[in-house]
Amino acid sequence: MRIGDAKQTYEADEAIWTSPTQKFWFALFLLALLVFPLMANAYLLYLGCLVGIAVISTTGLNILTGFTGLISLGQAGFMGVGGYTVAWFSLNTGLPFPVTLLLAGLLAAAVGILVGLPSLRVKGLYLAIATLAASVFLHFIFAEWESVTGGMGGLSLEPAHLFGVTFQSDFRMYFIIVPLAVLMVFAARNVFRTRIGRAFIAIRDRDISAEILGIDLLRYKLMSFALSSFYAGVAGGLFAYFYRVVTPESFPLSMSIFYLAAVIVGGMGNLLGGILGAAFMTLIPEILKLLTAALTPFYPNAPVFMSPMLEIIFGALIVGFLIFEPHGLAEIWHRIRRFFSLWPFRN
Amino acid sequence: MDWLFFGEISLAGLAMGGLYALIALGFVIIYKATRVINFAIGEIMMFAAYLFLAFAGGLEMSPWVALPLAVLGGSILGGVIEKVMIRPMLGESPISVVMVTIGVASILVGLVELIWGADPQLLPRFLPREPVFIGEMYLAPKIAYGFLIGAALLILYLLYFRFSRGGVALRATASDQAAAYSMGINVRRVFNLAWVFGSLAASLAGVLVAATGGLSPQFGAIGLSVLVVVIVGGLDSILGALIAGVFIGWLETVAGAYLGGEYRMPATFAVLAVILVIRPYGLFGTHEIERV
Prior knowledge:
Helix content of chain B: over 70%
Low-confidence stretches of chain B: none
Strand content of chain B: under 5%
Main location (chain A): membrane
Strand order of the largest sheet of chain B: 1-2
Oligomer: heterodimer
Low-confidence stretches of chain A: none
InterPro entries (chain A): ABC_transp_permease (IPR001851), LivM-like (IPR043428)
Keywords (chain A): Cell membrane, Membrane, Transmembrane, Transmembrane helix
Largest interface: A-B, 44 and 42 residues
Membrane topology (chain A): Multi-pass membrane protein
Largest sheet of chain A: 2 strands, antiparallel
Largest sheet of chain B: 2 strands, antiparallel
Structural class of chain A: mainly alpha
Distance between the termini of chain A: 11 Å
Pfam family, one (chain A): BPD_transp_2
Number of strands of chain B: 2
């Protein structure tokens, strides 16, 4: 059993690292992330990159939905803004990737603020529907503004580059995506140690009380929208660099629902949950693919059932987690940890 | 401007809007009684339409037997969803409940694809085929008769809610749950009833819409148009659902005919955005006052 965890200062209470053990495991985790691409095959690398992008976007949505309590069905739209920004700038200006990704994040944040404007007047589900409207408009713009977005055909772009190095392989993209994901999750963790992050949480818990406590609702809600869409924009930009093509169909409404599901399955209002949820939801289709491949020799038409099964599993996961484990994978993780740190006692 | 063309388009749009009104009514019944926004309504419609396809096409029943059976199946589905998945969420935050309905929608899409395949299908014809003329204006018979059947159910519903015991219980629960409970109304049964009735309206509309435009697992996307209707009309207003349904149906068809199909969604969502800014609780919805 772990003992001696009393905290004597507020600084100690707010610290990210509460014990050397934690630091040790985190360093080990970072090392594993670094070694992974050297050992992994192409398929695992591809999955690693996908999970990295999903982690960034889910963390962004978690800031908005999990921590500020504002539901958004526009995440895919914001990612689209980021993706198209990266595609347009890399085609027309040839800027290196840190600049284009930053621009993607900033533009998406600007769009996010615009979409968030009604959030003072409408909230809850009405807001979700306002963001849904925004994603419909964004899709329309992606499809129809042909001189910039290339219409339904979309845009193809060059690989990301910096100082003459081009990142055309998944192996190299991994070294952009994963460090960025770690950095952005870390940044999010820090936001919630500041007044801003605490204001978000206060708004989630009861917006009217938060306002009475002196939190400027409009300002903080818009800030949350901006931050969340910034994450989405960067994720969308990475998505564009990773697939090297963006079309209006790259960012469908189902993608927004996918990220909402990842936040819920992982655990709303929990950064670790966002990471677990993003990884879990990204890997589920792949696990199902492996399963189908294993079954095909016995049932030749197994592949036909894969896509519907995926829909069913996806829905069942959302419903199941909400009914049986509303705090998501993060809670399961904590339960496991609690078991070990309290051992040999129960609870 | 060609007024005859405009008239014909408008008429088709208004008829389509009648069906939207019916679906929106189903949506509003569920929302009024249980405060659940049902994102799965499009998929419930789809499921009922596929049931109709199975009964009338696969089992070769008469369409007039298949139609009530399919609608019954859709209503039972609604009741089961409420019992199994919505009931345990009682008292949870609205976000969670909405996400459950989104999950249900996904499950239904998967099931339909698993059973009937992903390819678009046509329903067997069951409505009269003679063209309908109103004055000089032509109206596709499928749409016209679909509208008439839908309108008949709508009127039945309105009478039911006004005069029957079940309807009064439903309205009582909607206006004050605690008071309804203390007056001896079985609130749980009312919740279930609301889902059954809401799904019934949606199921009938589902078969009628699928009869005019064909059926595929993507059919549930019509739920998005209905979402616009109920937000514009006000989530808890039956009158609002009717008026907004007809208006949005008209607008969608007219925008599609004059500007092109890609403008249908943006046009209605533009109306939605304007309404959200001017009257966030919809044209006829109740303005809820929040207290800490």
